[in-house]
Amino acid sequence: MSEIVPLKKKTFLYLLLASFFITNALIAELGGVKIFSLEKILGIPPLQLNIFGVVTDLNMSVGVLIWPVVFVFSDIINEYFGKTGVRRISFITAGMVGYSFIIILIWTGMPPADFWLKLNGIDNLGRPLDINYAYSTIFRAGLGIIVGSLTAFLVSQLIDAYVFHYFKKLTGHRFLWLRSTGSTVISQVIDSFVILFIAFYFLGNWSLEQVFRVGLIQYIYKISLAILLTPVIYLAHLAIDAYLGKESSDQIIEEADRNWERKPHNKVL
């Protein structure tokens, strides 16, 4: 009976972490089409920052704001369930994003009801508004992000998982901050630029210069927030240790480490 309770707790822990992972990823994908200005939020003029010879402002996709949270949960899943756990939830998330793509594509192609068009025919300033066009434009623009992000997401997640465990192999159970931040620094190079290139350059109307400008700011933001969120990972460890029990928690981590070191060709087919 004593073995069943830890198994139930382990399963619940994975479901909880996976749910937050998938939810944040889906929100970022579907809403990320909007590019916002941080300078306008702060009420300051464009900064025209010169970063490595590139002059840019603080413009980012709104989806980027919560994307570092996805990587925090990714690192926690990696720590307790290994690269297999991360890979599994990454493919499930990609599948859910693809499913969302199909549903939105069908919805935007459906003919609008006349009364809906009439009720929403003007905006709050009295200007004519084609609500169906606005709806389709926003969501179909989001589809471009989904296409680009599916590629960037899977590649960056798999790289993040391998780099995380590579650093862990070098340092053991010490320096959690190093494997967490280090894996994000490397994997986010791909995630920050590939998605913009596919969604806004290849499938959109951006120039390569604009892709690089926004991608650079987003990359700097993600890395900065990853560093700032490092204490959250330590707090999560403490909370998980308290939930599972320190002995069970250490056992799960050691099991994840053994699974990572096990070579596929050593398995009996």
Brief overview, please?
By secondary structure, this protein is mostly helical. The protein has helices spanning 4-31, 38-42, 67-108, 114-119, 131-171, 176-202, 208-228, 230-244, 246-261, and strands spanning 35-37, 49-51, 54-56, 59-61. β2 and β3 form a beta hairpin.
Strand order of the largest sheet: 1-4
Average predicted confidence as pLDDT:
76
- The CATH architecture can be given as Orthogonal Bundle
The helix/strand order is: HEHEEEHHHHHHH
Helix content: over 70%
Strand content: under 5%
Query: Span between N and C termini?
Result: 33 Å
> What's the number of domains?
1
Outline the biggest β-sheet.
2 strands, antiparallel
Annotated CATH topology: Arp2/3 complex 21 kDa subunit ARPC3
How would you classify the helix and strand content by structural class? mainly alpha
CATH hierarchy, class: Mainly Alpha
Our Rg estimate from Cα atoms comes to 21 Å
Please state the overall shape, judged from the principal axes of the Cα atoms: globular
Low-confidence stretches: 1-5, 263-269
| Secondary structure: number of strands | 4
Number of helices: 9
